[in-house]
Specification:
The strands form four sheets. The protein has an eight-stranded parallel beta sheet with strand order 6-16-7-15-11-8-10-9, covered by helices on one side. A seven-stranded parallel beta sheet has the order 19-20-18-21-22-17-23, with helices on both faces. Strands 1-2-3-4-5 form a five-stranded mixed beta sheet. It is globular, with a radius of gyration of 32 Å. With 1011 residues, it is α/β, with parallel strands linked by helices. 41% of the residues lie in helices and 14% in strands. Strand 4 and strand 5 form a beta hairpin. The chain binds iron/sulfur cluster (SF4). Residues 374, 377-380, 383-385, 390, 392-393, 431, 433 line the site of iron/sulfur cluster.
């Protein structure tokens, strides 16, 4: 491990400063201060060499040294910033060697003001002190080249020798000091380290040894893991799924995306090595969660993986995972044991049959933790995580110890649902999020949102946990069809002039320093001057970059009263740092060491050419005067921007700066494929699960899995044995390129495993479960839909009538209306109508009213949370005749309450994404990379639109015996380019060309007879 990781390691929370911002710019500023201090030290050394002393200095001194403690050997690597040796020549009389002192200097930039009280520095920056003292301790125990011990003992490990010869300084005084640099001003403060600091080094070793002991315990727990199958009785199609999943990880044709479950897969020869990525497509209601958990627990027990990350964006989905795990791990013989269930034709999930306690309570042999957002943990009166605003951030270490919070990782079966954590946090007067942070490394299964793996802002929670190694982790992503858009959203930002004005007023109120005020004023003016544009003028873009660069540096280096500013303003100020990194192309993926894959040699962030290339900067003033030409040049520059600068650069991330309206600047990530692919490849195994992953090649491309890594892997050359005798220079050169067969095989296997495989889950109970009609009478395209509003309204009315007939419960009328007592109206007579937008749904409601329809329509509410959505669905099923739902919303994709309760549905046109600057740019980007216009249109518009349709329809049949009659209401559904994107069950619908055919289709009996 690095000395930095060693110093930063903690089992519980650490009292630290306000939390300094980080990012590429911060690294660059730090490098600048390092360079200046180096010059200063060189001057010091030169001055010393004038008098009775002699001095020498080494910079960036690399070292790798072992350190033993309680049976563990820690191999620490690092770089000492400065190593200054001073020889006092006065003491060299009489043939004695001169006194020598060696000073280790660690340089650290801080954003707080200097000089500061030493004790405050120790409290705020304990890691820095530990790092410096670790170097001191390592150097003290390092074997020297002049060591008199025999070579094997002194240097069994050649790396354990220092790269510089301290032999001459044996017995010399080794000292360490920390040099703090105030990042904004360059003011420095040196702090000498003492005996107390050395104690802290040993305390840190003790913490590490305890952690490793606990890790051994966790590994033993996994080896002895006991769990029940996920289902008491298997649903048709589930019988071989565990074997299929296993096969998906261990067979396939190299380099291609292969479908398992298709006929050709059975004739494919098995490959030699396990795949790392599997696409698992299974319909809604299949029981994906249970199936995947059963597979994952088996792999954990077999030692194939050390940890499972189960990501799903909905809290309800996460709770279901926790419940399923608890039920699968319930003790045998328990009344809740799924094995006690009787076999039947329908599978029953363990979670459904045996709900059990949620996160806490039941003994769970597999240790699992559901991670909720920090805001949900909060027990402060306001969610503002700065020390002056939150009393729960003070004295973290002592409160952690006094509150006995280590129980959350020391003992199994501690309840750790959100309420339990909040209660423990309140009792200990400590932020409950610290408990989650501390306990995660001791849990085998982490359950949470995509953000914890894919969002630059949140991934630190997982990736920075000690012991977390993606290579030994199985990553399961549920509802994975949403992953590309979710990651792109997480890598996009917005800045608004209204917000900037508000921040400016607040900065004036707290009397912020004038450089920051001036810079923010300039930023506010720039935002206020923006007009609607699909792509920012290059000159304005350049101004924005300058403004953000300046602001980010000022925000980082200016002390501010964030407590007085409040959470909203603080958030906007801190956002400038993210904007700075976004503009520099730093999405935190390239710089995260845990995302380095074996084949990856990317070292530099994807920086925009315009930032990196000084020549282009010089050109800029000229370009400003040539505005019209600038526009023509712009695409070229953008093209250059997205080309990898060198062979070792990471793949490009296409971005767009644009203004959807005046005063609003959008920083949009157009395609996050490169970022997703890089992240996924870091994991030892990945399962991307959803009901709609096809076309799989397009999904693979949108996850960055369509291509091999940019840098082909090269096997390591073999060491040429000395016994080969004297060889010519040419032969020696040739020998250096030789590699062993085993190495070649390893590299070949690694490349083979890069390609994903598609596993299609069988669900025979869905065969013939849908009766589909394709209504070609209408055109729902934006330009023509208005002509058909009346026809659409009439079709809704007719479909609802058919639903009532099918239910056999047509309401009787008393006074001419069709209203019946609620209790008599089964939900089976309620239809679901899916629209591409609210505006479209509103227009059809108006058309229904105009036509005098008595249909009671319930339009889904906007912005409701999941609980409200579920309640609305339940109420509407009782009180309305038709639910109007918007495709792509969580109502259409997340609510599973319609299955078996709505038998008639209608989809009003494919839900193509809104035509805007983002889609235009995506199309342009795809065309630039060689895709034809038709193919680009398919990728950008048709596939996302039809995926929403497939998602919505899939939720109507969730179990054997359920059926649905579905009307696809638009002639486009009959066009091959759309029809082929429908899931197999809906693809071959009856064509409806006129009203008579519609009437006949509505009245026809269902193929399977129920409707
Ligand atoms: S530190 Fe914790 S308790 Fe304090 S505001 Fe943040 S989330 Fe809330």
């Amino acid at each position: 491990m690095s000395v930095g990781e060693f110093a930063g390691f903690t089992l519980g929370p650490r009292d630290a400063g306000q939390g300094g911002p980080s990012g590429l710019w911060r690294v660059q500023l730090g490098q600048e201060w390092h360079a200046r201090l180096r010059t200063r030290t060189e001057a010091e050394v030169a001055a010393k060499n004038q008098g009775s002393t002699r001095a020498d200095a080494a910079f960036e001194v690399p070292l790798t040294l072992p350190c033993m403690h309680r049976g563990w050997t820690f191999k620490l690597t690092g770089r000492i910033d400065q190593l200054v040796t001073v020889f006092d020549l006065h003491t060299s009389d009489g043939g004695h060697r001169p006194d020598v002192s060696v000073v280790i200097r660690e340089i650290k930039t801080v954003s707080g003001p200097l000089p500061a009280d030493e004790s405050a520095l120790r409290t705020d920056y304990p890691d820095y002190f530990l790092q410096a003292i670790a170097y001191l301790a390592l150097l003290r125990s390092a074997p020297r080249r002049s060591d008199s011990r025999p070579a094997p003992e002194a240097a069994a490990d050649p790396e354990a020798i220092l790269p510089l010869d301290l032999g001459a300084t044996a017995g010399s005084a080794l000292k360490a000091e920390l040099v703090f640099v105030e990042i904004g001003t360059g003011i420095t403060q040196s702090v000498a380290l003492g005996a107390d600091d050395e104690m802290s080094f040993h305390a840190q070793l003790e913490r590490l040894a305890e952690f490793l002991d606990l890790q051994v315990r966790a590994r033993d727990r996994l080896r002895g893991l006991q769990f029940h199958p996920a289902f008491a009785a298997l649903r048709p199609g589930q019988e071989t799924i565990q074997e299929d999943l296993l096969a998906a990880f261990s067979c396939g044709t190299p380099g291609t995306l292969q479908t398992i479950g298709s006929p050709e897969s059975f004739s494919a020869p098995p490959s030699r090595r396990a795949s790392t990525t599997v696409f698992f497509e299974a319909p809604t209601g299949y029981g994906k969660t249970g199936v995947l958990l059963e597979f994952a627990l088996g792999r954990l027990r077999a030692g194939r993986f050390g940890r499972l990350l189960y990501l799903t964006s909905k809290s309800t989905g996460q709770l279901q995972v926790m419940r399923t795990l608890a039920a699968m791990c319930a003790p045998r013989g328990d009344a809740g044991s799924p094995q006690a269930g009787s076999a039947g034709t329908e599978s029953v999930s363990a979670a459904e049959r045996f709900p059990g306690p949620s996160a806490g309570g039941a003994p769970t042999p597999v240790a699992a933790w559901q991670v909720r957002p920090k805001a949900e943990h909060c027990v402060n009166s306001v969610f503002h995580c700065v020390r002056d605003a939150c009393p729960y951030l003070a004295d973290l270490e002592s409160r952690w110890t006094n509150g006995g919070l280590a129980r959350f990782y020391l003992f199994d079966n501690q309840p750790h649902d959100l309420e339990a954590l909040r209660a423990a946090g309140r009792d200990a007067q400590l932020c409950p999020y610290e408990i989650t942070r501390a306990a995660l490394p001791f849990n085998d299964v982490w359950i949470g949102d995509y953000n914890y793996v894919f969002s630059p802002d949140n991934r630190g929670l997982f990736f920075d946990r000690p012991g977390f190694n993606p290579e030994q982790t199985l990553l399961v992503v549920d509802e994975a069809h949403n992953l590309p858009s979710r990651v792109a959203d997480a890598c996009s930002h917005v800045a608004r002039s209204g917000d900037a004005e508000f921040v400016l007023a607040e900065l004036h109120r707290v009397r912020a320093m004038s450089p920051l005020l001036l810079a923010w004023e300039q930023w506010t003016r720039l935002l206020a001057g923006l007009r609607h544009t699909d792509a920012l003028d290059l000159a304005v873009e350049d101004d924005a970059r300058d403004a953000i660069d300046r602001l980010a540096a000022l925000v980082a280096g200016t002390p501010l009263d964030y407590a007085a500013l409040g959470p909203g303003v603080s958030e906007i100020l801190w956002k400038t740092l993210a904007l700075r990194d976004w503009l520099a192309g730093d999405f935190d993926f390239a710089s995260n060491p845990k995302l380095k894959t074996p084949n990856s040699k990317f070292q530099t962030p994807n920086s925009k050419l315009i930032v990196q290339n000084p020549e282009l900067r010089t050109l800029n003033p000229e370009l400003r005067t040539l505005n019209p030409e600038l526009r023509t040049l712009n695409p070229e520059l953008r093209t250059l921007n997205s080309e990898p600068k060198t062979q070792n650069s990471p793949p490009p991330v296409p971005t767009l700066l644009w203004c959807p309206r005046a005063g609003e600047l959008r920083f949009t990530c157009l395609d996050a494929a490169a970022l997703i692919g890089r992240t996924l490849r870091a994991f030892g195994g990945v399962i991307l699960a959803s009901a709609t992953l096809q076309p799989a090649d397009v999904f693979a491309a949108s996850c960055g899995l369509d291509e091999a890594t940019a840098e082909p892997a090269r096997p390591d050359p073999i060491t040429v044995p000395a016994a080969l005798g004297k060889l010519s220079r040419r032969s020696r050169k040739a020998m250096r390129g030789l590699t062993s067969g085993a190495e070649l095989l390893r590299v070949e296997e690694a490349e083979e495993s890069a390609g994903p495989r598609l596993l299609l889950a069988a669900a025979p109970w869905r065969d013939n479960a849908y009766a589909v009609g394709v209504d070609t009478r209408v055109d729902t395209t934006f330009q023509h839909r208005m002509q058909f509003y009346a026809a659409t309204a009439a079709t809704v009315d007719a479909l609802q009538g058919a639903a009532q007939t099918a239910a056999g419960r047509r309401s009787s009328t008393v006074d001419g209306s069709r209203t019946a007592p609620l209790a008599e109206r089964p939900s089976a007579s309620v239809i679901a109508v899916f629209f591409p937008s609210y505006a479209y749904a509103d227009n059809i409601i108006k058309a229904l009213k105009t036509a005098g329809s008595a249909l009671r329509v319930a339009l889904q509410p906007r912005g409701a949370d999941l609980a409200v959505q579920a309640a609305w669905v339940e109420d509407s099923l009782l009180q309305a005749d038709a639910l109007f739902l918007v495709l792509g919303s969580s109502f259409a994709e997340s609510i599973d309450l319609l299955g078996g309760r709505v038998t008639h549905a209608m989809v009003v046109g494919p839900a193509l994404p809104e035509v805007n600057a983002i889609q235009h740019s995506r199309m342009a980007e795809l065309e630039r990379t060689g895709l034809g216009r038709t193919a680009a249109f398919r990728r950008v518009y048709q596939i996302p639109g039809m995926q929403k349709v497939n998602q919505a329809l899939g939720r109507l049949v969730r179990a054997p015996g359920q059926q649905a009659r579905v009307l696809l209401h638009c002639r486009r559904f009959a066009e091959p380019s759309y029809a082929t994107l429908l899931s197999g069950e809906y693809r071959h619908g009856a064509l409806i060309r006129n009203d008579d055919e519609l009437t006949r289709w509505l009245g026809a009996s269902f193929p399977a007879g129920n409707l």
